[in-house]
Amino acid sequence: MTEIKASMAGNVWKITAGEGDKVESDQDVVILESMKMEIPIAADTDGTVKELKVAEGDFVNEGDVIAIIE
Amino acid sequence: MINKILIANRGEIAARVIRTCKDLNIDTVAVYSEADQKAPFVSMADESFLLGPPRVQDSYLNTDKIISIAKEANVDAIHPGYGFLSENGQFADKCEHAGIRFIGPSAEVMEKMGSKIAAREAMEKAGVPVVPGTDGAVVSSDEAIDIAREIGYPIMLKASAGGGGIGMQAVNSDQELTKAFESNSKRARTFFGDGAMFMEKKLDHARHVEIQILADRYGNAIHLFERECSIQRRNQKVVEEAPSSFISDETRQKMGDTAVKAAKALGYISAGTIEFLVDEQENFYFLEMNTRIQVEHPVTEEITGLDIVEAQIRIAEGKELSISQSDVKMDGHAIEVRIYAEDPETFFPSPGHISKFELPEGKHIRNEAAVTGDYDVTPYYDPMIGKLIVKGSDRSEAIARLKEALFTYEIEGIKTNIPMLKTVADHEEFKNGNTTTAFVETYYLPMTKTN
């Protein structure tokens, strides 16, 4: 089980994988938006999205857990 | 005559425009979002009006609201700054219909230069060299390979709808291109809703050199020399200087003449910038034209002694250029660095509360600041919170002053790129003028990994 964390503070702009979806390593799970910059947050292992901790429009701080991959 | 101007922008550029207006005895109107209530530019203006919530669609891009405020405040003209509505032809048209002058070129020229394809065509017609590449969208990786073989590798693959470096990748072979085409096209679709790609020849060891021009409505056009802005991160400029330490006087003259010729061919009116890529042999190729004031305009002002905002206002008033080409002289060397609220190694934005903001001061130092020592940097807008401009009698003196100024530049509470700027200013390759567009990846990033 691995946690995907926000690499910067910002708003959750798009969620590109839902709970229960299979994802591969390097696949984008969430796209954050801050200061006119969109930063994709990718899974770092193959697995299944067990839990999404955020919804589109949420504000996250750097280091916050975004999703759990199992 | 223009007696009152609304500045449809925020941050340091709004403050910059207000300053020149004060010098010219022109009244100013600021417009601001809820997130910018405490920003310095708001209190600097003679009058200020709240636009709405922080999101740009509700504030700085809300054209109807801006025009209704402009009418209510009875302004003569709107200065759009850079970004936001500055290159929006529809907004310029709306201003004119409301009887308010838009400080910038015609909507038609703006629209033409805003389209990658139309701009290339117009420049080719005006006899300006363009980077070899596609004139339209490439739809499949097979088509991309045919084109790549014709142009020759390396190739820059770019998303037509792209920005901020997303959907953009350099490729060196058919194999790499096939893979990169699929992944970037897919990413562009996710981000921009459009997977169309185009391709350009990638120029190795290239520099970004741009020419500032001024043109009035009577067909007079002049250039104010070049700015070199090669040091970039995420395809955004970080360090800008004038003059370029690389190009020869002969190339300088040729680029200036070419830019003036292009401005005249376009029927361009106002201040504008023609951006070029320059290769190792000093061949130059048109990249794009910015039909507005640019972030880095101060370095040109520092070496020429001219005020570009004043020139924009006078041209908008219908005045003739007050100087001719032979009056424009270059004196000394100026360097600008952009201060970004971001991590100095990953370049990710770092919004938050600023608890201390102390600027270097001195005769050769110019500050353009967007924030104060007790200020919330919000995630809604560009991460640039200020610019530091230094001047020296030559480049090495300017670099020495830059280093000194950066060491007294103090910001607490958020992360900034100042550590990166210090490293760059102190780097041998920067001092040697080895400032290609690959500077950050070649020299800076490897240093952050070993430390």
Describe the structure.
The complex is a heterodimer of chains A (70) and B (451). Chain A is mainly β. In chain A, 0% of the residues lie in helices and 54% in strands. Chain A has a 4-stranded antiparallel beta sheet with strand order 1-8-6-3, with no helix packed on it. A 4-stranded antiparallel beta sheet of chain A has the order 5-4-2-7, with no helix packed on it. In chain A, a hairpin with a 2-residue loop joins strand 4 (28-34) and strand 5. Chain A is globular and about 30 Å long. In chain A, 31% of the residues are buried. The mean pLDDT of chain A is 91. Chain B has 451 residues and is of the alpha+beta class. Chain B is built from 15 helices and 20 strands. An 8-stranded antiparallel beta sheet of chain B has the order 13-12-9-10-11-14-19-17, sandwiched between helices. In chain B, strand 12 (270-278) and strand 13 form a beta hairpin. In chain B, helix 12 packs antiparallel against helix 13. Chain B is globular. The mean pLDDT of chain B is 94. The chains are: A mainly beta (70), B alpha+beta (451). Chain A binds chain B through residues 7-11, 14, 16, 28, 31, 33-40, 59, 62, and chain B through 164, 166, 187, 190-191, 234, 341-343, 346, 348-352, 379-383.
Offer a concise description of the structure.
Chain A is mainly β and 70 residues long.
Please tell me the overall pLDDT of chain B: 94
Shape of chain A: globular
Q: Let me know the number of strands of chain A.
A: 8
User: Which structural class fits the helix and strand makeup of chain B?
Assistant: alpha+beta
Q: What is the straight-line distance between the termini of chain A?
A: 4 Å
Oligomer state equals heterodimer
Low-confidence stretches of chain B: none
